[in-house]
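sry for the spam today, last one i promise. struct tokens for design, 151 residues
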């Protein structure tokens, strides 16, 4: 069964949602595959490099060398998982066809964007059809605190 959690972030933005979740993933002994469209790859890569002093994690992008050292990998192709990650982060409305190879999935989206909200709703409906998935929903309050809305 794949645990899928939707994270609707607000004012703090994508990087302040993604980076702490990545750090928790790595601290739990897991590796992360970050799935996003081509235009966003550079921004995600830069965020991991420069978000804050403690945020950098060994990572790579698409066909770059160094997978043997990485704990996170940014990919535009879900079939490419050179680090064997079991945790998947889905960004910018990407629509993975299958997540069955992953134990956990984080779907991060901007709650202020009608487009991303609509994409998240569609993805929820699609993943909710499968008995192999367990879905949860977190929303960020105005004070930055996360609240679990659905289990």
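last one done:
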């Amino acid at each position: 069964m794949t645990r899928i959690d939707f994270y609707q972030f607000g004012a703090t933005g994508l990087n302040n949602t993604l980076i702490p979740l990545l750090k928790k993933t790595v601290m739990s002994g897991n590796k992360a595959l970050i799935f996003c469209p081509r235009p966003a790859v550079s921004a995600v890569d830069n965020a991991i490099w420069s978000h804050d002093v403690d945020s950098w994690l060994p990572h790579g992008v698409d066909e770059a060398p160094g997978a043997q050292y990485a704990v996170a990998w940014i990919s535009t192709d879900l079939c490419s998982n050179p680090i064997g990650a079991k945790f998947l982060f889905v960004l910018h409305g990407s629509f993975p066809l299958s997540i069955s190879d992953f134990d956990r999935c984080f779907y991060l989206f901007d709650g202020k964007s009608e487009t991303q909200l609509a994409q998240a709703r569609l993805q929820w409906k699609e993943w909710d059809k499968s008995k192999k998935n367990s879905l949860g929903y977190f929303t960020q309050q105005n004070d930055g605190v996360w609240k679990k809305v659905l289990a």
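The longest helix spans residues 114-128. ok im logging off now
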